[in-house]
Amino acid sequence: MKRSAIVALALTGALLLAGCTDSSTTRTTISPTASDGIDRGYLDQSLPIATRVDILLGQMTQAEKFGQMTQVEENSLKTGDVASLGLGSVLHGGGSVGGKGDVDAWKSTVVENQHEAVDDTRLGIPILYGVDAVHGFGGMYGATVFPQQIGLGAANDASLMTRIGKATAQEMSAAGIRWDFAPVLAVPSDIRWGRTYEAYSQNPTIVANLGAAYIRGLQSASLSDPSAVLATAKHFIGDGSTVYGSSTQVIDTPYLLDQGNTPADATLLSDTLLPPYKAALEAGAQSVMATYSSWGGQKVHGDAALLTDTLRGKLGFTGFVVSDWAGCDQINPSNYDDAIVQCINAGVDMVMTPYDGAKFLSSLAKAVAGGTISQQRIDQAVSRILTVKFEMDVFANPYPDPAAASLVGSADNRSIARTAVQESQVLLKNDGALPIPATTHTIAVVGNAADDMGMQAGGWTQSWQGSAGTVIPGTTILDGLKKRAGANVTVTAGLPTSGKVDVCVAAVGETPYAEGKGDSTDLALPGLSVLDGLKDRCGSIVLVVVSGRPVIITDALPGVDAVVAAWLPGTAGEGIADTLFGDVPFTGKLPDNWPKDITQVPTAPAGQDYLFPMGYGLSD
Ligand code: GLC
Prior knowledge:
Belongs to the glycosyl hydrolase 3 family. One of its GO terms (molecular function) is beta-glucosidase activity. Keywords: Glycosidase, Hydrolase, Signal. It is a single chain. By secondary structure, the chain is an alpha/beta fold. Helix content is 29%, strand content 12%. α13 crosses α16 (574-580) and α15 crosses α16 (574-580). The protein is globular, with a radius of gyration of 25 Å. Bound molecules: alpha-D-glucopyranose. The site of alpha-D-glucopyranose has 7 residues, from loops.
């Protein structure tokens, strides 16, 4: 994106540039002068943030205020839009097709957007650029991709979670990206939900502990640290508690659970759903994303009782609320203006339009002019957004540190990812096949997830839905086994044409998915059929399940000697070899109940045991 000259014409008065402008990454140094009539006291870091907000807000035009409440998708921007719309934020969201490439490619885009905001607008308010770095920044080629949250729930290691948050922030901020739409704080009630893997656990205490730990890592000790990234507690509230079949959303396929309806159950709210948010806010989360779903039939994006009375009144939240992707629109699909009025008045401060920046701005102006949204509400929303921007010190540090790019995919971060994979493995069955014996001479690795980075990573990687294939660099399960087995063991991809193999590792996975497109009717795992031909060819069979949730494996159990739940491990596939060979003990415990069959979903009938209950996991 070439920098725009458009807004230069709109600038009143001459800005005396005291310092040189490094068009790449350092801030333009502006020497305040009376000539342009702007009081730049808001740039004075010695002043209290509330004072800086007052100075800035007090001289903002309505258009500039409305712009701060507007977030637009990167892929819909034309050169000059960031400046001409006065955008408060740009996102590269799930709906975008593919990532932008490596850290340098991302940095180039982010910095260009930021230069427009900082240098081509009257007040130079930096944008916050946001992405879904939900398992590391999967959209950035070469980034460290950690296990998805469900695997980290199995690990249940808060200090590790903090290290993952810090490593994620380190790699994001290297590209100039300082806002992460994570962590998900849902407590899934029905594991058929396509976002089950984005949640830590069905145990709200684990969700609260790990969510808070992640936020502390992501946001550093202070949000003003240039490598700190703003966390987003999402999706407030009840996103994972919807009733099967209650969704009316259709995106290529009808959604079943995602974006559906959660019964307005006060006990569920107080005892299960709110504690993770309470912990997240205590950990310092300064943005919250509203959920698409409904609460008692009311779209949460339009629910003031939840977004204001509960989130602010009960939990004391002081940051800003961002909508989900066109989430406001869903309040009233037939009347956008009315939807926007309801959304802002309910408590959404910034709207992820995402392609309708100009339309949103027009609707907002109409509502304020007509009195359906008060000026006080606008000033309140903008003050919240500016407060966070000052807390993050983006005015002083709008651009990334060029030296930080070398930290992306660093050995330290990959080591953290390997530890996370090791700790997330859950041993469900072991009839003596594990650890793989030192006397082993031949190993065959079979199955659709044996040698596939895309299957290991899952959704939110190089694309929204994720995909099988070599989508990002990393170590596959096969790679890891080959490397660990060493030169004296023959490790083959697939069965050899004849003869018996000492150990067969069958890595079977779900085809990647995200959100409601992953809503399942049966939790089936079609790739299990690979087991059919193994019995007479293998000395022992180890089933490794690469999935975003518990799936139906009951009938496969008798025919295998060991079963490991590997979840969606990401780039450090070597962590699976570490546990299979016994170099690292199995410590993972099930974050969710694992059903025998679909009749035990969402919950097992009274008196029935699950195949494996939440908290289950063998150590040898
Ligand atoms: C989505 C998701 C949300 C994500 C946003 C931006 O549809 O619900 O979790 O942060 O879009 O990609």
